[in-house]
Amino acid sequence: MVLTKEYRICMPLTVEEYQIGQLYMIARHSHEQTDSGEGVEVVENVACEDPEHGRGQYTEKRIHLSSRLPYWVQSFIPKVFYVTEKAWNYYPFTITEYTCSFVPKFTISIKTKYENNNGSTENCLNLDPDILNERIVEFVDIAYDEVNPKHYKEEEDVRYFQSQKTGRGPLVEGWRDSVTPIMCSYKMVQVSFEVWGLQTKAEDMIHRSIREILLLGHRQAFAWIDEWHGMTLEDVRVYEKQMQRETNTKVAGDAGPDKTAEEKDGTIPTSDEDAVKKTSSSSTPTAHTPTTPTTPLSPKSKSWFSWS
Fold it and tell me: What is the 3-state secondary structure (H, E, C) of 216-254?
C-alpha cells in the first residue's frame, strides 16, 4: 500500500509571484542547510521540454544527510549515502521524485499544481478515482502550525512579520479566508518504503518530515519576500546558480573534485536562454535525457521506475 496525502499550503501571494519566491527560497534554504560534507549538491540544472506541459526546467540534486536521520534509521543505513531528487518544473505544474542510493524500495513522488485560491479546489490535480478515494487531505497553515523549535526564527514568524515592500502581513487567525492576494500549492505526495518490518513506521516518519519541510519552506518564502519581490525570472535564475556553486563547494568541503561537470568546465547557464542553448548543443546520451515521468505511484504499482 502506498501512503498518499494531498497537502494544501496557502500563501498571501499570487501564483506568478510565488514562482519567483519559490526559486529564491529553495536556493537560499538549501545553502543555509548545507554543512561541509553534508547537504544539497546540485548535479544538473537545465532546460527541458514536454509535449504536454511545454518548456520547463529539470533539476537533479543529491541530498547528503546520513547524520541527520533518526538513530533507528542510522542503525541500518551506511554512513555515506544520499537521496536523489529529480524535479521537472513546468510552472504552475511540477513533478518531483526521490530515490535512495541504499534503499531501492524507497520512493517518493510529488505532483504539484498552483492556483490563485485558498485551497478550495476539490481535485486540482485531476487524480484518478482510485487515488482520489485513498488520499488524505491536510491543510498546512504557514502562520499557526507549529514549526520544529530547532528551526524557529522570530524574524520568520509570519504571525508578526510585515513586508516593507508590499505591506502584507502579519497573518492573523482566519487569514486564509480574508487575505488578498492568496494562492495555494496543491501537493499530492506518495511515499513507498517497502522494507519488511519498517514500512509503516518509515512512511509515517517520511510524511511528517515532508510536512515539516513544506511548512518551513513556505514560511520562509513569505518571510523573505522583501529579498526577492521585484526580481525577474532571469534575476532569480542568476541567484540560483550563484547559490548552487556555493552550496556544492560546501558539500565537497575542501576536496574540490566533487564539483559537477558543469562547474568544472565553467558552463553553468546563467539564464533560461543559456540553459536552452546548452541543452540543444549537449552531447549527453539519450539515456540521461530528463524525460518527464508519466505514471504516478498507485496501489497496484510499486513506482514509476523501470528497475523497481
Answer: HHHHHHHHCHHHHCCCCHHHHHHHHHHHHHHHHHHHHCC
The DSSP secondary-structure symbol of 130 reads H
Task: Give the C-alpha separation, 138 to 277, whole Å.
Answer: 41
Consecutive 10-residue runs of the chain (308 residues): their mean pLDDT? 91 98 92 72 92 95 67 54 90 94 83 98 95 95 96 96 98 97 97 77 88 95 98 96 88 52 39 38 40 57 25
In angstroms, rounded to a whole number, what is the distance separating the alpha carbons of residues 285 and 97?
21
CB-based contact 89:66 (threshold 8 Å): no
Q: Is the pTM here over 0.90, yes or no?
A: no
Half-sphere exposure of 276 (CA within 13 A, CB side): 6
